[in-house]
Amino acid sequence: MLSSKITSTSSGHGHLVTCDDDGLVHLITRTFQVTTFRAYQSTVLLSTQLQYSSILVTIGEDEPNTNTILKVWDLERRDRQSTPICIRSTKLPKSEKPTTLCATDNRLLMAIGFIDGCIALFKGDLSRDRNSKPKMLKELGQGITGMAFKCISKDQWYLFVSTVSSVQQFNVTSKDSCPMTVLDAVGCDFKCSVLVNGPDSHFMIAKEDAIYCYTVDSRGPCYVVGGQKIILQWFRNYLIIVSKERGKPLSAITVSTTTKHSDEIESISITVLDIQNKFIIYTTTMQDILSVLPEWGSLYILTTKGSLSQLIEKDLQSKLTVLFKKNLYDVAVRMAKCQQYDSQALIDIFRQYGDHLYTKGDHSGAVEQYIKTIGKLEPSYVIKKFLDSQYIDSLTTYLHALHKLGNANKDHTTLLFNCYSKLNSLDKLQEFIVIKDENIDFDVDVAIKVCRQSSPENALALAEKHNRHSLYIKILLEDRHEYTSALEYIEKLPVDQSVQIIKQYSNVFIENVPKETVSFLKKLCSTWYTTANVDLSGNLAQPEDFIYLLLDDSECLVDFLEHFDNFLDKWSTSLLNTYIEHCLIVWKNENNQENRNKIENKIINILQSTDIKMCDHYQVLILAMSFEFKPAIVYIFEHNKQYSKLIRYYLSLNDYIGAIECCRRYGHVEPKLWVLVFNTAIVDDMFPPFMLEEILNEIEKKSLLSAHFTITSLAKSKTFNIGHVRAYLTSLFSAEKKILEKDKEMVDKYQNDTENLKHTIEKLKNCAVVFQGLRCSACNNQLELPSVHFMCQHSYHQHCFQAFSESDDDCPACTPNNKQIMDIIRTQGQIKDYNSEFHNQLERATDCFSLISEYFGRCLFDDLSTVENQLSKSKLVSSPIVLTPKPVIPVVQTPPRLSPILSVHAIQQQNTNPFDEDEDNMEYDDNKNPFKDEYDESKNPFADDT
């Protein structure tokens, strides 16, 4: 390489490429192994290595003064001599010297610039030799010094072109034409343009005074960097500028080294500029720099003498360490942010920066850095530094930011507001809490507490703004004593919040503004009755919640509760009792009889209301008795049907007329009321004698007491004499006489009936019975032998009896009636187990002895099995109160062909019932039935009177 002159350099895809004037191409690997192959016979003019492909494009000459040749090499494909294969070779259409070459990484576009200002644009795959002619763009009239392709979208490409005195861009996406746009009238020299990679990339050119940037539409930013630039290159996020310097240079301070030159010679400086952070991170001087090549994460500097130097970037931590030592914290922060540094480590840089500024006495600058640590750094670390009164401004600034970022607690809020107070910055305090910074998060309760001490107006504004209604009311009541204003404020709140606050301060309001408070409570509690939302009702106010406030003023309480008299059906038991109690208090203290009558009617109307189901009558009764309110007592006793208690109440008041009236109204329901009045009359000396006659008449009419007991009781009384009971005794004796005569008649009748029954039974037992039936009771045909006769005078053919009889011992005609009688007996036997029913009948009966006799007569006290056995043994069938007799086998004349002795055999029951026939078809001679006459029930001494 030293014997030849390097004409072109390039890098990419793991190679450094150098070309010389002997037509050779040299490939340098990462291990600095050099591979050389001949590309041209004469010289290599230009070369470019695609960054992400193994394609190398070169332009050179095989013979001097001839058209140059474009060749495309595939470095991964080699021939037998390990030389890269040329996959395309094209002779350029122009004989002028080419100055610039560029190609896209996707190998679809390539442009060549000539010294006369012409540009040849190749479209299509570079790796294929199609012999396609390039498209010649508009001649610019000046030599092309730099070119670069930029992709805006997938199918939209632009070509930046720079000359010595202008910058243009071509839209190369169009098929027909490539429109040009002049971006600037400032140009650059060879190798002094570069395209910055990235979404916000720019096309940069270097002039002696500055670096100019361009977009596809217009001119971009400008960076002032002095010096005569000879090379412009881009590496990662850095812009590498190579410029010439004359004379004795100043000491160059860099991130990594410090270099001094003492000879007054022309030197070349290399400057690495961080465009994003706008500072120089490295600079040094060298001689004869030919090219700067980025590859393998480093920068390689190639000199004209063929020497290769490597610039290795330090790691970020090493950079930051150097910056910390030089107290360049602002630079360190920008660099760390650019490198996506860890957030916690970035916070540590801010802290160190703040500590540095604090040590220098720049407290405001220190606070700015400490504010950036909020959320990561403990606030107490910063607060301790500024607790001195001379630093209170800085502390206020930090605390304000702490609240704005939502990392403050109660102590921080208290400290901030105390700072405002010490600074007498009430306007700033008001601005902080009311006007600005709507999103500031701080402990409102603590802020209100601090503001109350210095500025109650600000405390009220803060409480109202943040809906601290309870604190707002507390300030109005305790600090300003504006009770009416507080009540008006509560009325504007939602119902549930109004209820909560009025319950909290109800005592204060009722003591200072009672009328306004009661009026407001009426409106508030009405909402509870009118709302239809069940869930919302739990958060509303009820009258019960405020009764305790008005207990000392019964008139006010009654007036308060009467406001809700339209909703009595929704009142609770306690509320209703309280209302009645205080109505009674008002009634007791009222002297105007008309007003007393209104209150009486009001109370009775409430008790009589059919909508009220929760009224505790017993509680109201206690209240009424305590206040001697007679109408309520009478109503409750009558409503609960406690008539005996009502009689005792009348008698306790010596209201004998009221007692008698009560007996007249409810004596038919509870007859013992007359007995209660009678018992009182015989012992009470004040009882009016003229009422005794009515009492005795009712007792006699309803048979409430025996005559003996009544007369004995009257004889013990010292109030009544014989004249008072003469009418009663006369009526009593007359009635007894009639009863005796009637009983005597009944005794005679029952004796006669008994004698007749005994005669009939004796006849059946001892005398022969003549069966005169001529027709069968089953089929109603002429009776023929063999036949079956029963003591009930029913006769049957033997085959009819066997067909329709359910058993050998029962008469088919009498069986249904006998079963009915047995069912009645069983039912009566079951009824006797209901002792409570028997005792109830015994209590209600006017003649207890008759009821017990009836039960004995029906055998309701006997064992049911014993009654059935007795009935089954009985031979009486015709009576409806006995069982069916057993059939008797009669003696009949038998024809000669039959046996003289007949017996009745059991036959099976058939489905046909002869007794289901219509009675009109029956020809049975009922005159022959000795039991045809119906029994006279009136002759039965054991028959039921009912």
Automatic annotation (TrEMBL):
Bias (Acidic residues) ranges: 915-924
GO terms, biological process: endosome organization; intracellular protein transport; organelle fusion; vacuole organization; vesicle docking involved in exocytosis
Basic and acidic residues bias locations: 925-939
A single cellular component GO annotation: HOPS complex
UniProt GO molecular function: protein-macromolecule adaptor activity; zinc ion binding
Pfam family, one: VPS11_C
Region described as Disordered: 912-946
Coiled-coil residue windows: 740-767
Topological type in the membrane: Peripheral membrane protein
Keywords: Coiled coil, Lysosome, Membrane, Metal-binding, Protein transport, Transport, Zinc, Zinc-finger
Kinase listed as a keyword: no
RING-type domain span: 776-815
PANTHER family membership: VACUOLAR PROTEIN SORTING-ASSOCIATED PROTEIN, VACUOLAR PROTEIN SORTING-ASSOCIATED PROTEIN 11 HOMOLOG
Family, per entry: Belongs to the VPS11 family.
Name listed for the protein in its UniProt record: Vacuolar protein sorting-associated protein 11 homolog
